[in-house]
## 1
Amino acid sequence: MLATTGRFFADKFRKVLPDSFIFAILLTFIAAIMAWGFVDAKPFGIVQAWYKGFWILLGFAMQMVLILVTGYAIAISPPAEKFLDWLATKIKSPIAVYGLVTLLGCTFSLISWGWIVLTAVLGRELARRVKKVDYRLLAACVYTSFLPWHGGLSGSIPLVLNTPNNFLIKTKVLSETIPTTITLLSPMNIIIALSLLIVLPALMMMMKPSDEHVVEYNDMVDEEHKAMKPLTVAEEAESLRLAEPNLSDTLNNSIIIMVIICLGGLWFLGHHFYTKGFDVNLNIMNFLFITIGMICHKTPFRYVVAMKRSCSNVSGIVLQFPFYAGIMGIMIHTGLGNAIALWIAGTASVATFPLISFLIGGFVNIFVPSGGGEWAVVGSTIVQAATTLGANMSPDQLTSFIARCSMAVGYGDSWTNMIQPFWTLAFFPIIAAGTKMQARDIMGYTFVSLIVSFFVFAICITWMPM
């Protein structure tokens, strides 16, 4: 039943969903029309707001490029290849691949959203080694495993709420921080995370297509890529040596140089985690990936070759991030985001507002697919509405209610990623490299994930204790 349902939606989405860049442009048009119609923004004012936002994600875009290329460089290293070869001897059936990739991906997402790169690496390599794995469903498993991220250690909203002097405190919307013990470690969040860890792998396994409908990795490899037998990283590095011994090749291929720089990196990382605990952010992750990658490739020049290969598939991020930042600019600088949140929350009650906050988060995420960016757009409105609705509560009850509604926005942000192809940019450079894979090939399956996960989120947000 679910296999048929997944295939049905996959076929429909494949026919109607345009390329993710076209999707970004269409959303820009919709945001502009809504700003003109809902908040009476002037046409040139909308264009100015669009341009003002256009460049605000450049730093984040560079972090994303680095996390992709450094993660991929690890994936093509000899130790990673050996591990994946070993794993493929243990995981021999397609249904086990779907379940394992989704389960590990959900676990990775709870640690850090950036670890979707590792999930993509695992999925790609298992699909290459295990027969009868449908590559489109496998890629959907990777994206589906992204669903729990906002309830994990890298969740933007709970981390902002726990940050001293955050923008809500500066604007006096909040009087003090809300600790992660009330958000990330709440019974509600833990139950949601555990539920998704059980439900999502089971769901993806149940969508396994019959053998006649399977499209394997080799079926999706483009002809040009299939015709080539690429050198390994080590072989390419060796092929670039000069014929006679020389100083430059000695330095390029020096293990000693790599050992010294890697020891410096490990020293810093050890000190960081020892003094700050499991404090994982994008900069630390990138530094960790660079250090591990250099260790795995052994010599400077091999790592240079690996990074060169890794950088060949990041065009989507470079092109699309400014356009989504422009949409964020329209939402923020015209007041559209705040107006949408106020309109949706207008008829709320204490009982219904957490679920309404979830729907607000899901809706705004379509236009601003960034947890931190979305919270900047609607955070003040959500907290102010929660404070007004909870005026008769005790201080502890009110803090708990604000935390519930804030986390609901985060879950909504994660939820509609399943129909918003923006975050495919975070793993498609790995999963789709050398293939004809497009975002529209997987969104039908992830639409089923969206429908099923709604019930998990809605039930827990409404009735689970904080």
## 2
Amino acid sequence: MWGLDLALKRPYSLSGGRLHFERLDSTILRLDTDEGLVGWGEGCPWGSTYLPAFAGGIRAGVAELAPTVLGLDPRRTDVVYRAMDLALPGHGYVKSAIDMACWDLAAQAAGLPLCDLLGGRTDGSVRLHSSIPSGTVDELLAEIDLARAEGYTFHSAKIGADVETDVERMRTLDAAMGPGEELTFDVNRSWTPAEAITALNTTREILRVVEQPCQTYGQHLAVRAAVGQPLAIDESLVTVDDMVRAVGDRACEVVGLKVGRVGGITPARRIRDVAVAAGIRMNVEDTGGTALSATAAVHLAQATPEPLRRATWLCFDHLTDNPVEGGVANDGGTATAPDSPGIGAVPDQAALGQPLAIFEANR
């Protein structure tokens, strides 16, 4: 197990500027098998203030789960996950990196790219979206221009300040979109229900997806009943039960399915299938990290049918360094899951340095 300090190219703010970040702290896991195969997993919360997750929690949780996991067959992903749930209820973000490494090994053992174990590769590439940090209107437009230069035609812009400022941002950014460009307004929970209803009814002519306007799911439902724009649930989607409830409540038209937040590929696949059955579109991605976690997420997106596969983001596009060999890349605003067996992204162990801990099975 390694810790990896990831510096962002530029400082990044969200939730109306309330949350500010300059670095991320990622945990990389290597899982070795008796047959000589090696699986890799990654867990990278977006700091410690964004969600109930932090890097130290992942490392402590991995140490807690290691005696349970080591010695199990990693190809039996559901069996491994049930064993983790029994040993450590909850704490899904801790289990995600272990689960990812198991899926990497399962796909390698089968001689298939991961997407073929997650439902099968679909035709075409996965569309990518930029992630535009919070700022003034001019700062948002400048960041969008930088993203356009990298091929992005789909932008997720962070808003959420005061209503008057956000109305100006929404109208200006919407008018700035060219033919074929798509735009999401991501509020990251910073509005109260009253603010959300006021802002969205003031801009009711702008039919762009508005993501996670309020802090809680109950507040989100209050907004849903009062506005006409398509809404997305992101941070409020943590478990399969959350997805089932959102379907029953007709709470949203889009969900943000982040692999690390929901506990790994195993629960993410289940949530994906519920959303597909309900006809709800998805951004399939991860919370943060290197090309390892991003490539695993693109595999899940690649196995998600169109048009329900909406977009994915590559966190490592925001990093100064990405110590991973292989994996996905931004190809003019799209990405394609690798054809090689497994995830197809391998961390550079020389760049990782000395491991923080090594766990071995009892013989």
## 3
Amino acid sequence: MFTLLRDFIWDDSKKNQNRKSLYQLIHREGPISKSNVLKSFSVPQTTLTRMVAEFEGNGWIRSGGFGQPSGGRPPVLYKVREDAGYFIGIEIARVVQVLLLDLEFNILNRKKFSVTVEHTPEITIPFIINMMKQLIQTHQISVSDIIGIGIGAIGPLDRNNGRMINPESFIASGWDNVPIVNEIKKEFPVPILINNGANTAALAEYQAQLFSSENLLYCISGYGIRCGFIQAGISLNSRQGDASSYGHIIVEPGGRLCSCGKKGCLNAYSSFGAMFAQIKREVPSMELTSSGQLVEALNQNVHIVEKVVQESAYYYGLAVANMINLLHPDVVLLEGKLIKESEAYMNDVISIATEHVYSNRRRDITIRKGQLGRDAVAVGAAVEVFHSFFKR
């Protein structure tokens, strides 16, 4: 009788560490031959052959083709079986998204909905659980096939205790100190991790683009500005899981009043709410209430909207430059509706950021769009859960 992959991965015993290290290596480097495994995995060849046979017999890995021969038969290449287990990745923001992913983090299916003022925790959490059940039923798998669940959410968070703490810029009320991990675990008794969505998105982009040692800054702009930072593959989390604090970088001392009570914060200039308010101040008859309306007006070349959006890009670019000067990333990835919908806005942000970066760094910095778009938050949440099983 073969052992479920999740039971193997969940096993933190000392005697299982070598086996888990081998699986992690094949997952990361596959398709890979035994000879290449031996270059970085210090066990006798007979031991490796036995372990590979066990993994293949249990249905955890499979042949991924053949490599180039070096005089004899071409070597068999091994890779993980992507259908040996599954992850669920969840994004909780103004759009709630639930993804079912295989072991290579390919998205198999998704469910999502937009959050309204009606979506209190009492309504939203059962919705999320129901969507998870629907995805599992659709793909004819069971809870025992789920290896872990990751949640990328708006902060601040109590990550250790799995709680959302009064998330900033969230449209619905009642989200103060919500034990969301425990609520989901009642229906899905598997390992569940929660982190700020900007951090999980950064991790997803880092893995998807196969960075090795680069430092990565990931910035999401919208109703707030949230950022995540990866240093040599490790996510640098704040203690409270509050990636929204980047939106309170001071870009105009003594400037506009921010929702936090201070003046001159980035959010007071570059968030959607700030742009809506500034447009109304300048043209009282014009009232925009959604990001879609803002983009539509921008595409129609409405002068006041163009002016306010350009001003937003200026302050956002200043903030990105400050982050670069402080954190020293090699790559900066930008995400958000305006970044996605307006090439002019993105170019303005990049231009201002580049202009204000410390001169010695300018040639070394790459600033561009993310690769995964909106999916990055939920995918990265699943990636983080997987990595957590190998950090013991």
